[in-house]
Amino acid sequence: MDTIFISELKVKTKLGLPAWERMIAQTVILDIEIGYDLAKACKSDAIVDTIDYGAVVARIHDTLKEHSFQLVEALAEHVCQLILKEFGAVSVKIKVAKPAILPGLKALGVVIQRTLD
Question: Could you report the per-residue pLDDT of 33-53, keeping only the tens digit for each?
């Protein structure tokens, strides 16, 4: 399987367990690996034969503006399912990091991987 990757995508969203934390959008950082058969695109050199990663990035920005999450796990699942269902990916691996959320900590978060059912 081939992989399209999106590295260190910074997105604003409302995220956090206490309600006060979700009142103001905060930055999360996403690293995404999208599994897709790129053989046809390699030969055709045509965007229709691949996943338009610009469209993926725009859609992630839009959906994370619209939604609020208590847990990074739920945010990660939401983005994985969006990419699988809307863009026809075979698999998605995503790392969601909340930077500098606790003193002395660079970031915390989750990594999940999902495949097309």
Answer: 999 999 999 999 999 999 999
